[in-house]
Amino acid sequence: MQDTNCIFCKIVLGQIPAIKVFESDTALAFLDVGPLAEGHVLIVPKEHYSDIRKITPEELALVMTPIPKLAAAIMRATGAQGLNFLQNTGAVAGQSVFHLHFHLIPRNDSDGLGYRWNAGKYAEGRAEELRTKIMAELA
Ligand code: AMP
Ligand code: ZN
Q: Three-state SS for 70?
């Protein structure tokens, strides 16, 4: 099912243009209109899911199937040395389009994007507390 107000649903339906690079029955990949680097691609399920929590594992597997080949093709086509594969869930995590999508962002030494990964540290016992909570939610 598509959401008539959703920009990525409109792309899937061909109602607004996109530079498509891959299409299957389940997924569509196209160039990001505001690339962090040349060759920045988004891959989306054709069905509308707001974020990573909503899709079924089976459909997610189908959306992920082309990723190894797509990542390699993007890297070869752009001459990238690396690639970030990202999914943002929630505005606080940087999500601005609420149709599930995955970013493939080619990376190079000289791209100036940097990478901020400010690793923290758990206080005594906190990691175990979190494990208990997460496992209770999974059960
Ligand atoms: P996110 O911040 O993870 O929700 O990413 C949304 C991405 O969608 C941004 O990188 C936008 O540049 C991109 N975007 C928004 N509208 C379009 C569009 N019409 N075609 C292609 N990419 C788009
Ligand atoms: Zn949508």
A: helix
- Domain spans, the chain: 7-138
pLDDT in tens, 71-88: 999 999 999 999 999 999
Topology of the domain comprising 7-138 = HIT family, subunit A (3.30.428)
Ligand 1: atom nearest CA of 11 is 19
CB atoms within 10 A of CB 123: 8
Assigned token pair, 31 = 């160039």
Tokens 């993007």 found at: 74
| Contact present, 32 and 11 (Cβ < 8 Å) | no
pTM: 0.96
Regarding the beta carbon of 111 and ligand 1, being less than 6 Å apart is answered no
Task: Name the region of 14 (left: φ>0; alpha: ψ -120 to 50; beta: rest).
Answer: left
Q: Is 48 a catalytic residue?
A: no
